[in-house]
Design a protein that fits this description.
Enolase-like, domain 1, Uridine Diphospho-n-acetylenolpyruvylglucosamine Reductase, domain 3, 3 domains, Uridine Diphospho-n-acetylenolpyruvylglucosamine Reductase, domain 2, alpha+beta, single chain
Amino acid sequence: MGLPSVKEFVRPGTLDEALELLRERGERAWPIGGGIDLVLFAPREVETVVDLGRLPLRYVRENEGRISIGAIATLREVLESPVVRDYLGGVIPEMLHQVASPLLRNLATIGGTLVSANPWSDVITLFLALGADVVLSDGKTRTIPLEKLYPARALRATILTEVRLPSSARESAAAFWKFSRTAFDVALLNCATFVRMVGGRCVEARVVAGGTPQLGARLPRAEACLVGSGLDDSSIERAAEAARESADVREDRRASADYRRELVLVGVKRSLHEARGRLAGGER
Ligand SMILES: Cc1cc2nc3c(=O)[nH]c(=O)nc-3n(C[C@H](O)[C@H](O)[C@H](O)COP(=O)(O)OP(=O)(O)OC[C@H]3O[C@@H](n4cnc5c(N)ncnc54)[C@H](O)[C@@H]3O)c2cc1C
């Protein structure tokens, strides 16, 4: 598909320049990271493509256990970064290996992936479970929880500059689980869990299911089954049951609602067992 309305392709070198262009051109401008969604979703009136690729936002950094990822870092750059390798048992590269294909990961950026809010997004499901924040700039800078970014398909005259992941406390673990028809296909359903333990008791839990087929969302009833528990088999079982009952699953051309409900149960259970294994120092 062509983009006949596009008359201008600009590559600003600074954030101020990029924001100025977006403000000036309004609805007729479309910022891109990797640009993958441009052809799929860009409205017909787009005349100016603002490529964010020259902005100094291509990095993956660690500071006192906290991780900051610049919006322009590609999924491949994040996947291969030594900074994320050991974060919570390597759950980030584990998830990124399952996103699309190597060719798409070479192009897709973290910023574009979070803003595009594709409902099957594996990145969003895991980052919600990890408690990520995002930094936005429209001239002024503000930091908000990733959860608060949605529902938004596109940010007008605002650029997502960075995603921040909290420091991984010693007794915490996370895991990700994806169900798809083939290795390169988008998720029929994905799940991610995060737990933080103190003295053998769970004090913080996040359970997320995505591709339901809606965008990833937390499941508070499942989380409540974990907080206060010792993460034993019965609390995992209860949490998985609560996830199955409370997840807003629906039918689409990929799967029925009933099938997805079972996937929520299995995905949450497997993911919690994996997280518990990580806490114990093993894989499962
Ligand atoms: C064939 C195919 C298979 C896929 N498989 C998977 C999969 O298995 N798992 C998965 O999770 N995803 C999958 N995806 C989704 C894919 O990961 C996203 O399309 C991609 O991540 C978008 O990244 P991008 O950098 O190209 O975004 P872009 O297309 O550049 O941008 C997407 C949106 O975000 C806006 N934007 C971009 N950067 C910024 C910024 N910094 N600030 C503000 N707004 C911004 C754009 O204006 C646009 O609205 C698949 C996509 C395709 C086409």
